[in-house]
Amino acid sequence: MSKETGYADVNGLRMYYELHGSGGTPLLLLHGGLFNIDLQFGPLLPGLSEGRRVIATDFQGHGYTNDIDRPLGTADLTSDVVGLLQTLDVPQVDVFGFSVGGAVALKLAVEHPELIRKAVISSVSFRPEGDRPENSAVGEMKVEMIAGTPMESDYLAKSPHPDLDHLQTLLTKLGDYDRGADGWSDDAIRAIAAPTLLTVGDCDAVTLEHAVRFLQLRGGDVNGDFVGVPTSQLAVFPGTTHFNGLARTTLVLDTITTFLDG
Question: Which InterPro entries does its entry note (predicted)?
Fold first, then answer.
């Protein structure tokens, strides 16, 4: 599978990106915290880029993109992504974001409707009430806790600052991610113009009750035989945690591509 790689100068970052495939509306991939393009989407990329252009990027402090003296939060990461699309001269995309990337995909869908044709929003709540209480452990992450994991080895192999001190800085920033944010109102979720596919694991960091509420606000949870299948949908992946949310490649690929091509 051929790919093009490059860096875009955006908001003080040298933002790494990859281009795969060709055709159709480009699909923008946005990874989760502590992941990167390869760790989050590597197994999915061949299938996702079959017959379509795929744009993937590493967020601030992740993968090949440098960190800067700025907290990590949805507003700044969204601004980075908008800047990247402007640099690449891409007027509209489909977006597939997981966790932190899902929060960015959601903000793009709410605040930049002209940029988004369809949105896949995975494993993220639209308000903090949808998060499980155990998630607070993320705020206490130390480098020792991920020693020997693919996240540690990939960070040290790819980062422009490949040392454990910078990795701890990243963990601390992720622990403070959007702390105190209120999330989105019901009206803001209802008003999203783009058809949305919500995905969540059945033992994820987001409660299933919240995922269903998200779907209801998007016009789902109806008898489709009588009123038609809504343009916004929900997929619950079985036996799936937050960490391995996209691990069932065949299932995830079929779910995502069927929605995008529908």
Answer: AB_hydrolase (IPR050471), AB_hydrolase_1 (IPR000073), AB_hydrolase_fold (IPR029058)
Q: What is the 3-state secondary structure (H, E, C) of the chain?
A: CCEEEEEEEECCEEEEEEEECCCCCCEEEECCCCCCHHHHHHHHHHHHCCCCCEEEECCCCCCCCCCCCCCCCHHHHHHHHHHHHHHCCCCCEEEEEECHHHHHHHHHHHHCHHHEEEEEEECCCCCHHHECHHHHHHHHCCHHHHCCCHHHHHHHHHCCCCCHHHHHHHHHHHHCCCCCCCCCCHHHHHCCCCCEEEEEECCCCECHHHHHHHHHHCCCCCCHHHHCCCCCEEEEECCCCCCCCCCCHHHHHHHHHHHHHC
- The pTM score is 0.97
Q: Which segments of the chain have a pLDDT < 50?
A: none
pLDDT confidence of residue 140: 80
pLDDT tens track for 203-252: 999 999 999 999 999 999 999 999 999 999 999 999 999 999 999 999 99
